[in-house]
Specification:
alpha+beta; 5-stranded mixed beta sheet
Length: about 150
């Protein structure tokens, strides 16, 4: 398995995986809108996308959004998306992608990587905990806008 940093050259592969990921969370399929969203993120350097490739096929991706820690006076990253195709689960792509995120974040002198996942996403939570992530003590709040 190979983990590569996605560029515009891999946009089509990432867009298909991104669409599957969004469907996994209950959204309707819309590859073209997802592709446009990703294209803009990459063009503006607003996200970092890593792609897992196994036997020449894209099987998973992760997307990071840069942010900062005011208290630490350092860069930080939000691991916003992680997805592996259903037929490729068990190959270690999720672990490899997450470890690449950690490696990249350390190279960028980040203070931390943070993420959120659903409480019932037992597999993902197990992976994150196995890789040394801990649930923090903060209460997260959100306000949605239509």
């Amino acid at each position: 398995m190979e983990i590569v940093r996605a560029t515009m050259s891999e946009l089509d592969d990432v867009a298909i995986l991104f669409d599957e990921y969004r469907q996994f969370y209950g959204n309707k399929s819309d590859v073209s809108s997802g592709k446009a969203f990703l294209q803009l993120r990459l063009a503006l350097n607003e996200s970092i996308i890593f792609l897992a490739v196994h036997e020449g096929k894209a099987i998973g991706f992760t997307q990071l959004y840069p942010t900062f820690s005011s208290l630490a006076l350092q860069r930080a990253f939000i691991l916003n998306d992680l997805y592996v195709t259903e037929d490729a689960r068990g190959l270690g792509a999720g672990k490899d992608l997450t470890e690449m995120v950690f490696q990249y974040s350390q190279q960028q002198h980040a203070r931390y990587v943070t993420l959120q996942t659903a409480p019932d996403n037992v597999n993902a939570r197990g992976l994150y905990e196995k890789l040394g992530m801990k649930q923090d003590e903060y209460c997260n709040y959100v306000k949605y806008f239509d």
